[in-house]
Write a structure and sequence with these properties.
heterodimer, A: mainly alpha, two-stranded antiparallel ribbon, 8 strands, globular, B: mainly alpha, 20 helices, 74% helix
Chain lengths: 706, 496
Amino acid sequence: MLPDQFIQFIVLGPGLAALIAGLFQRFIGDRGAMVVTTATVGLAGIFSLYQLFAYAAGAGGAGHVEHASLAADTGAATSYVGQHIIHLITWMDVGGFKADWAIRVDAMSIVMMAVITGVSGLVHLYSWGYMADDPHKARFFSYLSLFTFAMLMLVTADNFIQLFFGWEGVGLASYLLIGFWYHKDAPNDAAIKAFVTNRVGDFGLALGIMAVFLVFGSVEFGPVLTAIKENAEVVPLALAEAGAVREVVVPFLAWDIPALELIGVLLFIGAMGKSAQFFLHVWLPDAMEGPTPVSALIHAATMVTAGVYLVCLVSPIYEYAPFAASMIALIGAVTALYAATVGMAQNDIKRVIAYSTCSQLGYMFFAAGIGAYEAAMFHLFTHAFFKALLFLGAGSVIHGAHHEQDMRNMGGFARYMPLTYGAMMIGTIAIIGLGIPHVWGLSGFFSKDAIIETAFAAGTNGVPFAQLAFWFGIVAALLTSFYSWRLIYMTFHGPRAEPHHDEAHAHDDHGHGHHHGDPHESPLVMLIPLGVLSVGAVFGGWYFYDAFVGHDYKEFWDGAIYAAKENTVLKDKYNVPEWVFWAPLIVTVTGFVIATFTYLFNRGVGQRIADSGGPLHGLFANKWYFDELYNATLVRGSAWLGDLFKIGDKKVVDGIGPDGVASLVRWSSRRLSAMHTGYLYHYAFVIIGAALVFGAILFWRSGGAG
Amino acid sequence: MDFPILSAVTFLPLAGAILILLIRALTGAQMRPDGSEDDRVLYAGLLFSIATFVVSVVMFLSFDTSGTGYQLVEEVDWFAGVKYKMGVDGMSVLLILLTTLLTPIALIASIGSIKHRLTEYVVSFLILETFMIGVFCALDLVVFYVFFEAGLIPMFIVIGVWGGVDRIYASFKFFLYTLLGSLFMLAAVVYMYLTAGTSDVVVLEQFEFSKSAQIWLWLAFFSSFAVKLPMWPVHTWLPDAHVQAPTAGSVILAAVLLKMGGYGFLRFNLPMFPDASLFFQPFVFVVSVVAIVYASLVAWRQTDMKKLIAYSSVAHMGFVTLGIFSFTEIGVQGAIFQMLSHGLISGALFLIVGVVYDRMHTRDISAYGGLVHRMPVYASFFMLFTMANVGLPGTSGFVGEILTMVGAFQANTWAAAGAALGVIFSAVYMLTLYRRTVFGEITNPELDTIQDVNTKELICLVPLAFGTILLGILPNLIFDITRESSLHALAQMAGG
C-alpha cells in the first residue's frame, strides 16, 4: 500500500494546486496555473491508479497476506481490518459531536480516489485543448482542482461532517463551473438551479446527520456502522428509549419511525439531490451549460455518483432499513426508465448524454436498493470511464464543429473526425453493454448485466421492487441502446446538414464568435484522454469483474461494504435462469436495429415523428413537464409567500407596531389636547401606558396578588 | 487588586472621545478648503480604537481559557448596595474581541465617505464602543442596564445624523422598539433588586425566584433582548435602521449590537429563570423557526441590497435563539459560535455593500450587474462571504448553523426541520443577489469605469475573510474557550 505521505498528497495536493492557481495567477500566469494543477492532479491520478491496481491484485487470493497487513503496517486505529485512517486535525469537538479532518483509506475510497483523480487528470489535460481560447484559463483550472479536492475529501471522510464538507464543496465547484461563462444568462440560471436543488437534497442529508447523532451520539462512521452491524445497544441522546439499534424508534415530526429507516430515508434524500434522481433530477440537464470537460468530470463521472457512494458506504443502515432500501430501489428504477425516455427525444448532444447519465445512476441506485451494493459500485466505476469518454467525445465534436450542439445540424462527421468517431463508438458500445454472456464484453456489459442479474435474483428472493427494477432495467436497456445509436447516427452518419445556426441551442460558446467551415478533428491533447478512457471502457469491466462482484468480492471490499446474512443476491446472480443472461443482449440489439432503421437507413423518420407532435413525444421532449410543474408550484409559491410576507411586514407588523403607535399618538394628540409637543415624549407616554395596561391584564390573568 | 484591565478596555474609547472633544473645544473644527472637515480627527479616533483592540488582546491573554467562573473581576461599591462589578467569561471575552476588532474596521471604512460633522461621528463611535464593551463586562444588573440602554443613544445619533434620506423615521423606529423592551426590563431589574436584595449577577444566578415571578421576569428580559436580536415579529426596525445607517453604522449594528440580545439570553434568562426558560421553549422555537423561514423569504424579494442582508441577519439570529433554547451544550455552543461568526460575515457583507455604495450611491440591486468584469477582487470577496452566509462547510457560517440545528433536533425535530428549510432559502436569496449584482453583462453604463477595491477596503475585508475561514476550519479554537460559559448557562437548567 501507499505510504501516508502519498495518500495525503493525493487528497490535499489538488486543494493546494487550486489555491495556487486561484490566488497567484497574477504571478504565475495562465500557463503556470495550468501546469501546476494538471501536474498535481495527474500525479495524484497515477498514484491512485497504482494504489487501486495494487490493492486489487492483493485482494485476489495470493496477495491476501499483503493486503491483510494494510492496517498493521501503519499501526493506526481501525474499525475493521481493511481500513486505515489518517487523522489530520480535530475539526470540531462539542458535547460529543466530534469530527476530525481525516483521510479514510479502504476499498471504497481506494476505488473512488482512482476514479476521481484518474478522470480528473485526463479532464485537466483535455481542457488544455478545449479551453485554449478562453480568457479565464487560470480560473477554470483552479475550479477543476478545487472540485477534485472537495470530491476527494468527500470520499475519504471518516465522519458525516467531513463528508458533508466535501458534499457541499463539490456543490460549490459545480455551481462555479456550471456558471463559468458568467456573462450569459443561461449558465447563471443553471448554476443557481443546480445549487438550490442540491440544497433541497442537503436539507435531507443534514437532518439525516442530526438523526444519526441523536441515535448514536456520534457522527463518525466507525462507531455508527459498527453499532449497526453488531446490533449494539444504543442510548439516544433524547426523545427515544434506549435499545438495540435495529429496534430503536425515534419520533420525527408527527411520526414515530424506526431510527434506521428514518436515517436511511433522510440520507437518501441527500443522495437524490446530488445524484439527480427522480424529483430532484431537474438540475442535471441544465448543468450542461457548463464547459464540456466539466460535464464529463463533475456531471458524469464523479460528483453525481456521490449519492451512490453514500448509499453504499452506509450499507449497514440500509440492510436493516427495508423501507428505505425499497424506496431507493423504486426511485432508482423509475429514474432509470424515466431518464431513458427523455433521452430519446433530445436534440442537444450533451443533453442526450446527460439524461443517459441520469438513467445509469438510476441503475446504480436500484442495485443498491436491492442490496447489491458491490454491483452499484462496479457500475459507478465502469460508468466513469465510458461516460467521461462519451462526454469528452461530445466535447470534441462540439469543438470541431465550432460550438454546434444541436444534432439536427450535424451529420456525416465521421469522415471529418475519425478518431473522435472511433472513441464515441467505443463509448457507445460500452454503455449499451454489448457482450456475449459467459464470454466477454465491454465494461458496461459486465457491470450493467451484474445489476440486472442481481435484480432478478433479488426479485426471486422477494426483495421489494426488485422485480419491477429488473423489468424497468430491461426496458431502459432497450432505450439506452436506441438513444445511444441515435446519437451516433445523427452526428456522424448520413449527409451533412446544411450549416445553419440555431442560437437557442448553441450554448457551449466560448465567446469568441462562430467560425464557419468544415468540422475538424481535435488536437492531440484532447485525443489522448479519449484514448486512455477508451482503454478503460473496453477492458475495465473485464479486468475488475472478479474483484468487484465476482469470486473475490469479499476479499476486495473487505468489510467496506456490508451485507446482512439474509442478503445473498450477489451469489444468487449465478443461479438465475439462462434467459436472464441473454435478455439484455436481445433488447440491446433490438434497440440498435430500431435506431438503425429510423436514423441510418431512413433518416428523417425521427424528425417526422417529432414533427407529428404526438403526445408521447411531447411528453418526452419536454422532460415530462417537471420544470413547468416546479416553476408553477414551488418557485412561484415561495415567491408569492415572500411577497406576501414582505407586504405583511410593512402593513401588518409595522401597521400594528411602530406606525400604528405613531398614528395613534398623532390621532390622540390631536384629539386630546395640545399639551404635548415633544414627539419622543408622546411615544414614550403611550408605551408606558400600554405597558401598564398590558401588565395589569397579565397580573389579573395570573390570579392577582392573591 | 490587580490592574483593572476590564475597566481599561471599557473606558479607553470613552477617554479618547473626551480627549478629542477637548482638543476640538480648544482648537475648533479643522476645516479643509473645500468645506469638509479634516479627517485627522478620524485617524485620532482610529488610534484609540486600535489601542483598545491591543488592550483587549492583552486582556484575552491574561484570561485563563481553562478556568471556570468569572475572571478578571473588579468590584467597587457604587450606591445602595449596587456595585460597579465587572468580570468576564469565555463568551464575553470573545464578544469583546469582536467589538474591539470591528470598531477600528468600521472607522477605517468611514475614511473618505463621511464628510460632515466628522468629530461628532468619531466621538459617537468611540462612546458606542465603550458602552458595547461595558455590556459584555458588566456583572451587576444595574451596571448592565446602564450600558445596555446608553448604547442606544450613540447608535440613534449615528443613524439620525449621518443616515440616508429616511433617517429620521428609521432612527425613531429603532429607538421606539428598543425603548419598549427596555422599560419592561427596567421594571424587572427593580423587582429583582428588591426581592433578592442585590443586583449582583453572580448572586442572582443562585437566587431562586418563584416560578410565577420567573415567568414575569423572563418575559420582561425577553422583550428587551428579543427586540435587540431581533426576533420575529419585532424585527421591522432592523431593515429600516440598516438601510438608513451609514456603512460603519450597519457594520457595528449587525456585528455587535444584535449580539447583545443573544448574550442577554445566555447571561440572564437561562441561569436566572430556568423554569420559565423551559416553560417558554416551545414559544421561542416557534418564533425562531418563523423568523428563519419568513425572513429568508422576505430577503429573497428585496430590491435593496442592505435590506436583503438585514433580513438575512434576522434569519441567522433565528439560529441563535434556536440553539440557546435547545438547552444542550451543542446548541448553546453553536449559538455563541453563530453570534461570533455572524459578526464577521454580516459585518463583511455590509462592508461589501458599502464598497459599491461609495462608488455608485445606490443600493438598488437592479442598478448593478456585471461587476465581476471590472472588480474581480471584489467579486472574489463577495463570493466568499456569500458562501459563508449560505453556510458552506469550511466557512464559519456552517459550524454555527449545523450545531444549533443538531442541538434543536434533540429538543424538537419540527424546529430542526423548519430551520433546515432556511438553509435552502439562504442559498436562494444570496445566490440571486450575487448573480444580479456581480454576474451577467454590464448593463448600467455608469459601471463601465467602476474601480476595484482599494487598499483601505482591503484592510477592512481581509481580517474578516481570514477569520471566517479560520473559524470554519478550526472552530475548536472557539469551543475550547466558550465551553465553560455554555455549561455555566445550562447549569441551572439541569439543577432547576
